[in-house]
Design a protein that fits this description.
Elements lengths: L2 E4 L10 E4 L7 E9 L6 E8 L4 E7 L6 E8 L5 E6 L7 E6 L7 E9 L2 E6 L5
Antiparallel strand pairs: 1-2, 3-4, 4-5, 5-8, 6-7, 6-9, 9-10
Length: 128
């Protein structure tokens, strides 16, 4: 926060507060969303890969059907998974996951429906 003050007004017995904020976050270099499920309606995963190499993955489940949504992030040139996330609740829930700076020039997001040890309806596009 770079500054704050109250505003005196006769409109209320409460004074509004004004804050000046400075938000610093790395620029997003690549971003994409992958839909989950056979009709692309079960949920989704969104990856934002920043210019500094960090990544944020948001995974959401749209249906309360007992199947969750899980996502894996890796670079196209490597088999190593750098980030994994799942919706956690198996029903109408979302989760946000972050990875520190790493090299993701061509990120691939694999999104699957899952329950217990089973995965199905996986999709694996490259995010451009």
């Amino acid at each position: 926060m770079t500054g704050a003050h109250t505003v005196v007004t006769s409109a209320s017995d409460h004074y509004p507060a004004v804050s000046d904020l400075s938000v610093r976050s790395p620029a997003v270099a690549k971003e994409g969303t992958v839909m989950a499920g056979p009709a692309s309606a079960s949920g989704w995963a969104n990856l934002a890969a920043s210019a500094n190499g960090s990544a944020t993955l948001r995974v959401c489940d749209n249906e309360a059907d007992g199947w969750g949504v899980r996502a894996y992030v890796r670079d196209k040139s490597s088999a190593t998974t750098v980030l994994t996330g799942a919706d956690g609740a198996f029903a109408d829930g979302c989760g946000t996951f972050t990875a520190p700076a790493t090299s993701l020039p061509s990120p691939i997001v694999k999104v699957c429906l899952y329950r217990a040890g089973e995965e199905k309806n996986c999709r694996e596009p490259t995010i451009t």
